[in-house]
Amino acid sequence: MRRPGFLLTISSTWLLSLSLTCWSGCGPRSDGPPTAPVTGKVTLDGKPLPSGWVYFDPADGRRLAKGQIQPDGSFSLGTFEENDGAVIGRHGVMVVARKEVEGGNDLLEPKVGPSLIPEYYGDIGTSTLTFEVAPGDNIANLELSTRVKRSR
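The structure corresponding to this sequence follows.
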């Protein structure tokens, strides 16, 4: 026969364990390089780019940050988790935006549509975009152009 307080003791112990687990793992990250929030807007020829991804590639080789472009062109970066920002320091910036293709969710043979922006923005070796992430809030407005860049 169980005593009435037995279930209360088990429940209290379980609740305390759950609270401590969440408290120790549900907060700011203490390991790894420091990050800072980065938000912004991507425009193409002055108009918001309605879809795609923004990638910040740290010059020192640390972890890449990414953010999905929203219909109004806005984005927010995440490195270790969604919206935690990018590693502090200098970054090369890439933007990838492709037209959606019907049936493009097949993991074995993904269908990729044509790029909505000049291809060089989507390659860290050819993109001319850079950004310096500083401690505190950062706003990175990325102005893309379809005009061909001429070399001198």
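The domain at 35-144 is CATH 2.60.40.10 (Immunoglobulin-like).
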